[in-house]
Amino acid sequence: MSEFTLQIDAPYISCEEYARRTGITLRTVRTLISDGRLPIRPKLKSKERPFINMIALVKEARDLAEAC
């Protein structure tokens, strides 16, 4: 089993920032959220802005790497 370390600069980032970092459109980011393929921080109110849950993405990447 190999080990790796990932560092994230923020646990949650805006949709706009995620789109900028990944090079995908904001519309695609919103579609991925709607489809449940991109994890977001739980919202307390339905009108709140969604924030991408970077911690969940790192955990998913770790789990996939361990499965290989």
Task: Output the keywords.
single chain, about 70 residues, mainly alpha, two-stranded antiparallel sheet, 2 strands, about 45% helix
Describe the structure.
With 68 residues, this protein is mostly helical. 46% of the residues lie in helices and 9% in strands. It contains three helices and two strands; from the N terminus they run E-H-H-E-H. The protein has helices at residues 15-22, 26-34, 54-67; strands spanning 12-14, 51-53. It has a two-stranded antiparallel ribbon. Helix 1 (15-22) packs across helix 2. It is globular and about 40 Å long. The model has no long low-confidence stretch (mean pLDDT 92).
Helix segment tally: 3
| Shape by Cα distribution | globular
The beta-strand count equals: 2
Task: Please outline the major beta sheet.
Answer: 2 strands, antiparallel
Q: Could you give the distance between the termini? A: 10 Å
Mean pLDDT over the residues: 92
Strand order, sheet with most strands: 1-2
Using only C-alpha atoms, the radius of gyration works out to: 13 Å
What is the strand content?
5-15%
- Low-confidence segments, given as residue ranges, are none
Helix content: 40-55%
What pattern of helices and strands is seen along the backbone? EHHEH
Structural class assignment: mainly alpha
Task: Provide a short characterization of the protein structure.
By secondary structure, this protein is mainly α. The chain contains three helices and two strands.
Structural topology:
Blueprint: E1 12-14, H1 15-22, H2 26-34, E2 51-53, H3 54-67
Antiparallel strand pairs: 1-2
Helix pairs in contact: 1-2
